[in-house]
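Student: Send me a single protein entry containing the residue sequence and its fold in token form, directly below this note:

Tutor:
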Amino acid sequence: MSIEIANVGKRFGGFVALDDVSVSIPAGQLTALLGPSGGGKSTLLRIIAGLERADTGRVEIDGVDATGLPPQKRNVGFVFQHYAAFKHLSVRRNVAFGLEIRKRGRDEIRRRVDELLALVHLEQFADRLPSQLSGGQRQRMALARALAVEPTVLLLDEPFGALDAKVRKELRDWLRRLHDEVHVTTVFVTHDQEEALEVADEIVVINEGRVEQIGSPDQLYDAPANEFVMRFLGPVTQLGDQLVRPHDLQIRTGAAAPAAVAGRVSRVTRVGFEIRVDVTTEPGQVVAVTLTRNEFLALGVDTGAAVWLTIAPGSPTTTAAASRPVTAAPSLAGSR
């Protein structure tokens, strides 16, 4: 089911959480609301769910104006970061809870719960308590419980934020496969750029209560609308007044190429299969370049070597604000 958010505004006292936000989410799509903490993404999700009331604007779900509807009238499934499980109920009873309060028949509940436990690979844990599950298993239980009532929209608020990196990676892959099976319109909040780029069909970048850009992961990464999107969606460095991805920079030795910038290698760091090379240009700007191990070995340079820097043709760039420092930005993993 499609979701239309039109001119939504929300204030908490003097704080503007959302400022005239409009987003169109097609039916069956997996959409990420991505942005820094406090940017407004969770507030927008809660307004879609009916857990918060917008001050201005409207929300439509499948063509129906849901702006004034309470949460129980919106047929929305909501999964929180911390599971919100009933600790005294088994996994089976947790998943069945929404069906039981809707007075569904016993056979229907049993059949639906069995289907969902199989879907999320928890059938062997049906009789355990939530405390007997791992974090990843509890989150899969929470997703099964949200899906039990067959919602038209599934909303996930930082669903993997409380888990360690390895489990987050596994659940990202699992969520993408699950969505491809059930095809429910899904919106999830995250501040993790890699999570959004890997899982989502479309990303809505929100910052300071406003939408900065909407597009596919490829569109946002390869054609950022502005400096904020460029900096937020992946590692960046700065060459002159241009922001550029470190892997889009080329290091040359010998004679200068057209538009090349002279510098010297000031630091070399190996991180797994990557070699990160810091080059200090003649104006004193530190520029980060990312190379593969084979590319670095082929160059044959080391600390102190004189080199030339160029931006690879066709690479996405944007002009940096004059007030920004001219130091290398952190890597993708470090900027979450």
Notes: The longest strand covers residues 15-25. The two ends are 31 Å apart (CA to CA).
